[in-house]
Amino acid sequence: MRQRKIISTTLGELIVAVTDEVMPIIRNRSAIYLVVSYILSDLFAQQRVLVHKRSRRKRPSHFAEELAQREMR
Fold first, then answer.
1. Helices (H), ranges, 1-73
2. Other C-beta atoms within 10 Å of 19: how many?
3. For the chain, which residues score pLDDT lower than 50?
4. How far apart are CA 62 and CA 56, in angstroms?
5. pLDDT score recorded for residue 67
6. Of 23, 42, 20, 44, residue with least CA distance to 32
7. 22, 36 contact by CB (below 8 A)
8. CA-based torsion, 70, 73, 31, 20: positive or negative
9. Cα(66)–Cα(14) distance, integer angstroms
10. Which of 4, 2, 1, 13 shows the shortest CA–CA distance to 47?
């Protein structure tokens, strides 16, 4: 199993890092922010699924139930 490296960062630093990586590839400035938005949305969606699957609570919180219902739609 691969070891995970935990990196502590702020949301702003993450946005800047992703933007810096995308800038050399995308020339259109408005497209840069769109691509960064898609990348961050995908990253957060994957993390939300991982957290939801890992939950061992017998009774999930109201927020978790609401998320599960949204995903079913």
1. 11-22, 29-54, 62-72
2. 16
3. none
4. 15
5. 60
6. 23
7. yes
8. positive
9. 27
10. 4
Given this model, what pLDDT does residue 19 score?
Answer: 95
Question: What pLDDT was estimated at residue 43?
Answer: 86
Q: Are 39 and 22 in contact (CB under 8 A)?
A: yes
Q: Hey, where are the domains in the chain?
A: 11-72
Q: Terminal CA-to-CA distance of the chain, rounded, Å?
A: 34
Q: Give how far the C-alpha of residue 56 lies from the chain's centroid of Cα atoms, to the nearest Å.
A: 21
Q: What is the chain's length?
A: 73
Query: How far apart are the C-alpha atoms of 19 and 32, rounded to whole Å?
Result: 7
- The amino acid at 64: A
